[in-house]
From TrEMBL, chains A, B:
It comes from Lachancea quebecensis. Residues 4-358 form the FAD-binding domain. Keywords: FAD, Flavoprotein, Membrane, Mitochondrion, Mitochondrion outer membrane, Monooxygenase, NADP, Oxidoreductase, Pyridine nucleotide biosynthesis, Transmembrane, Transmembrane helix. Catalyzes the hydroxylation of L-kynurenine (L-Kyn) to form 3-hydroxy-L-kynurenine (L-3OHKyn). Required for synthesis of quinolinic acid. Its cofactor is FAD. PANTHER family: KYNURENINE 3-MONOOXYGENASE. Belongs to the aromatic-ring hydroxylase family. KMO subfamily. Pathway: Cofactor biosynthesis; NAD(+) biosynthesis; quinolinate from L-kynurenine: step 1/3. The gene is BNA4. This is Kynurenine 3-monooxygenase.
Amino acid sequence: MPETVAVIGAGLVGCLAAVALAKRGYEVTLFDYRLDPRLATTQDRNLRSINLAISARGITSLEYVDKEISKRVLKDIIPMQGRMIHDLKGRQEAQKYGLFGECINSIDRGVLNNSLLDEVDNLENITLKFGHKLSQIKFTSAAKQTCVFTTDEVSTTEEYAFDFVLGCDGAYSSTRAQMQRELRMNFSQEYIDCCYIELYVPPAKEHNPEFNGKFAISPNHLHIWPRGNYMLIALANGDGSFTSTFFGPWSLVESLDTRSKIQDFLITNFPDAVEIIGLKQAVDAFESHPRGALMCVECSPYHLSQGRAIILGDAAHSMVPFYGQGMNCGFEDVRVLMQLLDKHSGNRAAAFEEYSYKRHIDLVSIIKLAKTNYKEMSHGVTSSLYLLRKKLDTLLGRALKDKWLPLYTMVSFRADIPYHKAIQIEQRQKRILAYLQAAIIAMTSLGGLGFYKLLRRALNNRR
Amino acid sequence: MPETVAVIGAGLVGCLAAVALAKRGYEVTLFDYRLDPRLATTQDRNLRSINLAISARGITSLEYVDKEISKRVLKDIIPMQGRMIHDLKGRQEAQKYGLFGECINSIDRGVLNNSLLDEVDNLENITLKFGHKLSQIKFTSAAKQTCVFTTDEVSTTEEYAFDFVLGCDGAYSSTRAQMQRELRMNFSQEYIDCCYIELYVPPAKEHNPEFNGKFAISPNHLHIWPRGNYMLIALANGDGSFTSTFFGPWSLVESLDTRSKIQDFLITNFPDAVEIIGLKQAVDAFESHPRGALMCVECSPYHLSQGRAIILGDAAHSMVPFYGQGMNCGFEDVRVLMQLLDKHSGNRAAAFEEYSYKRHIDLVSIIKLAKTNYKEMSHGVTSSLYLLRKKLDTLLGRALKDKWLPLYTMVSFRADIPYHKAIQIEQRQKRILAYLQAAIIAMTSLGGLGFYKLLRRALNNRR
């Protein structure tokens, strides 16, 4: 008899975990409290999505689970080679992400989720149950974990027993809450003072020969309108549109309490964006779309003893979206857990234990990186000292290859380097960079401005 | 019509808050999920209590609410003038808490809770409802908050509407969980690696003329058997017994998994304690009493907008028991909130807002102090440098009075100094002490040991 598992949450991480477990021979039941999103109409959209950027860790994990599935679900991704910074006058400046042209990839969350659900449907040993809201888990000391669900029929409950439970039910995880009743779990949730609002950039009205005809701005960049403590971003969709998101402090958003204030604010700060969104549409969206909160969640450990339960994805480590790593990290969770199950020949108790013990430092690291990256994104690149250091970082990265790795490269393009290792390497390089920078400044003052100009030209030529 | 309030939790803080609000004219309903503890038999005891030490902040707050009530509920307290340190050979050494004989006071949690419930019964505008477990609060935007309870009858629910809700339902607060659904509350819970087990020291078998006849050891000290990363403590009860508590790392406790291991451990580490507890009783208790976990809870803010709800006591700030401040701080919450209601002439929205804003820094401060005090308690006073500094601290405190205040004095005996202020003052004094200490050591090495001996004698004479 195969072991049975309840995967709670049919979002991105839940679907991938279900597939990975099914392919290992487990009998999987995948539950979600929502109805099947593939049956939803446009009106059902929650208007709160932030487009995803899938990069090395996400892709590697998908391929690890199944190369063919990876190909199918990623067929519509749009590569983004860098940021496109929009200033107040509408001028655009591109900044590359990778040293050698590596890209991150824009994909709509809903589209990716639906493709993964299709893959779930293709597998015989996964049963998919929508409209099932987890209300309780009765953990027993070893054999069976009984999950209680409320279903759409008001006050109907259903109970199922499984060998173990895998919670992929997001930042407000019910699985986690049930586990907290069983074990001493350290836990924190922290809201950052930032509200987000989804906006929508329609496809170009007229044929735009510059960008495949249909896009109003480059689809191959992550567009940013950095304005200090607030910003607008936009990521391309396959149909020529962009999903755009405004981020700003709650007090700012709440102060824009009339249509005319919103209109003035948008025109003053994002004139070129307003032009492609449409003024009325932009104001409508800003006024009426739901306002999202951003929360970081940390906890530890992630599992219950005896291999009875474990949480992955946002349920274990919700992070702010500013490093584009939330989903990538969640997919990596799946890969790491599967590798540990292999290492321990399917001994769940040992695999879960090692997962909690080893994965924590990486999760804490990326949560922190994501939080600090808000400043870099929203303030743009301004100080000339910062620019000099950044250019040196790139120059050394290109010249020394694997011996010098910029942080962004390690996080986004090197799935083989764990997050915490990336931070360690970055710390060391930072010290060297500071030293080099000081040396350059000293030489510049000794040798006059000539040397500095020469160096700047050299650096610029390498871009 | 008076405003109506649901106080959730009839523990120490809930009872005091109910009394304070009732005396201000609010119509109070006080709910608790337990049955009336005054009807409980000895068998019902949960065997997990740690005796309380009530000090200035707790007493001042009780008196602030009602001087007569304070007198009545505190009539059986036993003053403790200091710690009594027990070494491995059973030798005892007293350390004073106050500079001028100030005491903290031992009281049994159950006894205090029952006296407060009696006071609640005396007030006409408090309705007391036991056996009511909060399951949901439907917060509406302004007027009425509907509280849903499950009662002892299985699957019966009762609903009541109130103007506002005051949550005093402890570290695992349901009120807090309900509020978290309504607002962006930062929250953390952290378990420390420490398990506690309640033991019991019976009254002296024979008449003990030294300690009022009935106590086996001094009732006027908080007894500590410090043993590095674990310890035993004991606080006196009115009947001649002591409530004793063992604290130690989980791995240590779990390693003592046979009666003979427990027996060896207790005899080796706490020979004199085992003698007064009784060997069999000590081993029985250690083996069979429930093992408690210690958790810190921090959150912010503490209230819902429009004066709809607020949390006090452990629900808002659970701390480890090592500074004896948990209940004192909870009582102080009540006083601070009442003073703010007065200041804002009963405008709850304004009072709650100011409470969240101002109280946070004090709560975070005492949570941190309590955590760091574990080390001081369990390691005892060992290093001679530490002892020198401690003596200087005391000496300066006695000589300079209000101009020099040891931290313990500020926290335990000065309700007029907020916790965060106490830490600030301590930081400044610490720098001065370090400087003085360095100077003394320098003078000692210059002037030979003669000076040091003279100084030590001077310091000792002042004790």
